Amino acid sequence: xxxxxxxxxxxxxxxxxxxxxxxxxxxxxxxxxxxxxxxxxxxxxxxxxxxxxxxxxxxxxxxxxxxxxxxxxxxxxxxxxxxxxxxxx
Length: 89
Hints:
Radius of gyration: 17 Å
Distance between the termini: 36 Å
Number of strands: 0
Structural class: mainly alpha
Helix content: 55-70%
Strand content: under 5%
Order of helices and strands: HHHHH
Shape: elongated
């Protein structure tokens, strides 16, 4: 898997109100939250970028008051998939 490294000057990192040992983890979360907030990244990919479980990422979205991108079409698709799944059991 290819990755992208972003260079952030250390003097900027030192201004973070985050302990140095948590920089990587917290910055990945912040990037994931912002990209999801702006609808630039799906929920699944945002939570993977953040390195979190679905439940933990949903909780983080709630803590930050970030609305889920879930509309009527998504709901109807979920209902159809649920009906198909129940029919195969």
